[in-house]
Design brief:
The complex is a heterodimer of chains A (403) and B (259). Chain A is mostly helical. Chain A has helices at 5-14, 18-45, 49-53, 55-60, 69-91, 104-123, 128-151, 157-162, 166-179, 194-220, 225-239, 243-257, 266-291, 295-303, 308-338, 350-359, 367-396. Chain A starts with a helix and ends in a 7-residue tail after the last helix. Chain B contains 9 helices and 10 strands. In chain B, the strands form 2 sheets. In chain B, strands 6-7-8-3-9-10 form a 6-stranded mixed sheet, sandwiched between helices. A 4-stranded antiparallel sheet of chain B has the order 2-1-4-5, with helices on one face. In chain B, strand 4 and strand 5 form a beta hairpin. In chain B, helix 3 crosses helix 4 (129-142), helix 4 packs across helix 5 and helix 5 packs parallel to helix 6 (188-203). Chain B is globular. The chains are: A mainly alpha (403), B alpha/beta (259). The A-B interface holds A 95-96, 294, 296-297, 299-307, 310, 314-315, 318-319, 322, 396, 398-399, 401 and B 67, 69, 88, 92, 95-96, 98-100, 102, 104, 106-110, 112, 119-120, 123-125, 150-155, 168-169, 172.
Chain lengths: 403, 259
């Protein structure tokens, strides 16, 4: 008889009764068969050459080859900033927690990164110098993560307060590196593409729609009628229209409304439409968060002499935004997926790039490989957003405090 | 002058200047409910006044007008020589001088206990954080929870939270403390620890207006007990008289109900 606890658990969970056992066996057979089919296709039939041959196209579109060092530099800087923030986050835990320097999740992440760095560049068939760049960037990230975790506590508090500022600065620097300026050759938005364009569009819309959404939510609760009605009309108009119509509208109407030259580039027009679209949904999520903060919080803050803006900034908004966080990130995840609609207005983001690749006579019929790659890429981005949001939620949750 | 015979916990009689002067205060809610129908109350420096009354009698509304959490339509309120007006700066000034302790504590759940105490002194009084933290630590010691300084309010018991709330008010160094049913949301075994802190404050000469149903506290600490009913003050007397020989029929009814 099974005596091992794991076997006992399996027996209890899956084979408690005769019916349970039959259902379990049936499902296991189904899962096994489909998994086997998928693996056989992936390893024996699929022609991954379509991905290998177009990996640069998928990554950055038609970004000029001689300027791609700027993107490498940006990736390296991003890796360094991530390593620094990650390490400091572990080195300086919340006031009421002890904190572990290398918790289990971090060790899993470490293993995953090491695996990705050694496997993905090779699997993509990159040249050895390019592979080496990826190894170097990963090593850089992990080295900084390690040292920040080890020595982060010794940094002066004044300096530590400045660390979060790295991110907005890096974002601006990244924009400059990508588009040119500061003495660099200009690369017009029409030459950006692939994952670069998708991430750029999504991150811009996410970053810009968040403050917009917060302002709209505050406006909707304002006592000034003009502000309140303005916010209501905006939110309800945007939420009442499908994104694709707004995208087409944005492409055309901005051209009519603004004198030639003033209207932003097609790519930026789309980015603004995405921003305004997402902002309306974020506003509703934040409004729900604001409504859930008890009135007593505002009263306590005001009775201590805080002004209305101070009470909002220090007491009400931090609580409201934490509550609104899951719904807001949900919006961001759908926004990321909605960027695929940009291919319908002729932008070559991931899906647009994929369609040009599939239309190439050399790779006819290899749609499954392309779509699967796209799905995995999107899944990775969304999973990262979701994981980050849940980690943030736990860190901000004042009632939940593991060791 | 109150008689010195009542109890040892009671501070010496207050003879100082008026700290609160409320004259003919009337409040109507937008829905027409007439919550305050002309209330007069004057409180001297160092005096402890307990306000009692059935629910809906306007006692909470009344003390919430002192720091402008509630607006009033008629009458006047002067706090330590400054008349309450609708000028926002005037309101902010008065709120700095009058601390308030709420029934539901209203601690800021996203800040640690120490941060709860330091927020307003640093932001409003523009004091140095290090100096405020020293004072906050001393105050937490005084209310008996210094070891909880780095915890979040949600990790404390109700009694501890209310003591933090009192310390948070004290950290602004107010001249008046208002208590809005400070023990009504507490489990019975935690009421005592909060009342002890309040007694200590009274003994130190803090001017306090307390809305409460704690008879023991009123008897032992208050200089005056005020009974409100239907938006008016019905009776105002030292606790010795109030509890043993109430003058008004409404007071006798109320005492019969809560005793």
């Amino acid at each position: 008889m099974a005596s091992h606890p794991a076997l006992k658990a399996i027996r209890r969970e899956l084979f408690a009764s005769r019916t349970d056992g039959l259902i379990s066996l049936g499902l296991l057979a189904l899962i096994g068969a489909s998994l086997l089919g998928l693996l056989r296709w992936a390893f024996l039939q699929a022609q991954w050459v379509v991905i290998q041959a177009n990996s640069t196209l998928f990554a950055v579109g038609r970004y000029p080859l001689d300027q791609q060092w700027r993107l490498w530099l940006l990736v390296a800087l991003l890796a360094m900033a991530s390593g620094l923030s990650w390490g400091l986050l572990r080195a300086i835990p919340r006031a009421d927690r002890s904190g572990v320097l290398w918790p289990l999740n971090d060790r899993i992440a470490l293993a995953l990164l090491a695996f990705l760095a050694s496997w993905a560049p090779a699997a993509l068939g990159l040249s050895v110098p390019l592979q080496a760049r990826w190894w170097l960037i990963t090593a850089l990230l992990l080295a900084i993560r390690w040292s920040a975790g080890r020595w982060g506590r010794r940094l002066p508090p004044r300096l530590l307060k400045l660390v979060p500022l790295i991110w907005p600065l890096l974002y601006l620097l990244g924009m400059a590196l990508i588009s040119g300026g500061l003495g660099l050759v200009r690369v017009p938005p029409s030459e950006w593409g692939g994952l670069l364009l998708t991430v750029l569009m999504a991150s811009f819309a996410i970053l810009a729609s968040f403050p917009l959404g917060v302002l709209m939510a505050l406006g909707r609760r304002s006592e000034l009628p003009l502000l309140r009605w303005g916010s209501v009309v905006y939110i309800e108009f945007v939420r009442g229209a499908p994104l694709i119509t707004l995208l087409f509208l944005g492409q055309n109407i901005l051209g009519f409304m603004l004198p030639g030259g003033l209207a932003p580039d097609r790519v930026w027009r789309a980015a603004w439409v995405l921003t305004f679209f997402c902002g309306a949904y974020v506003a509703e999520a934040v409004r729900a968060g604001l409504a859930s903060v008890p009135a007593g919080q505002q009263e306590a803050a005001r009775s201590l002499g805080l002004t209305v803006p101070q009470a909002l900034q220090q007491v009400v908004l931090p609580q409201a935004l934490r509550i609104a966080l899951p719904a807001t990130v949900g919006q961001f995840i759908s926004l990321l997926q909605d960027t695929t609609l940009l291919s319908l207005i002729g932008l070559l983001e991931l899906l647009g790039t994929a369609r040009t690749v599939m239309a190439n006579p050399d790779f006819l019929g290899l749609t499954a490989e392309v779509y699967l790659t796209l799905a995995v890429l999107f899944w990775c981005c969304c999973a990262a957003l979701g994981l980050g949001s849940r980690a943030l939620e736990r860190r901000l949750d004042p009632t939940h405090s593991p060791a | 002058m109150t008689t010195p015979s009542i109890s040892s916990a009671q501070a010496p009689a207050a003879t100082g200047p008026w700290m609160i002067e409320a004259i003919g205060v009337q409040k109507r809610y937008p829905n027409g409910f007439h919550a305050l129908r002309g209330v007069d109350l004057r409180v001297r420096r160092g005096e402890v006044v307990v306000i009692m009354g059935p629910s809906g009698s306007g006692k909470s509304t009344f003390i919430r007008t002192f720091n402008a959490l509630e607006e009033f339509q008629e009458g006047s309120i002067t706090i330590d020589g400054t008349a309450l007006s609708n000028d926002l700066r005037n309101i902010d000034l008065i709120r700095c001088e009058t601390g308030m302790v709420f029934q539901q504590f209203n601690l800021f759940p996203h800040l640690t206990v120490l941060q709860n105490l330091c927020l307003a002194p640093v932001l409003v009084r523009k004091r140095r954080r290090s100096e405020v933290e020293r004072q906050a630590t001393a105050l937490l010691e005084r209310v008996g929870i210094a070891e909880q300084a780095s915890k979040y309010p949600g990790q404390l018991s109700g009694g501890q939270q209310q003591r933090v709330a009192i310390a948070r008010s004290l950290c602004m160094e107010p001249r008046i403390l208002l208590f809005d049913e400070p023990t009504s949301a507490l489990d019975p075994e935690m009421v005592g620890e909060v009342l002890e802190v309040m007694k200590g404050l009274a003994a130190d000469g803090m001017t306090m207006v307390v809305v409460t149903h704690e008879m023991g506290f009123a008897r032992e600490v208050a200089h005056r007990v005020v009974l409100m009913s239907e938006g008016r003050i019905v009776e105002e007397a030292p606790p010795s008289t109030f509890f043993t020989n109430p003058q008004h029929e409404r007071s006798r009814q109320f005492l019969a109900q809560i005793l």
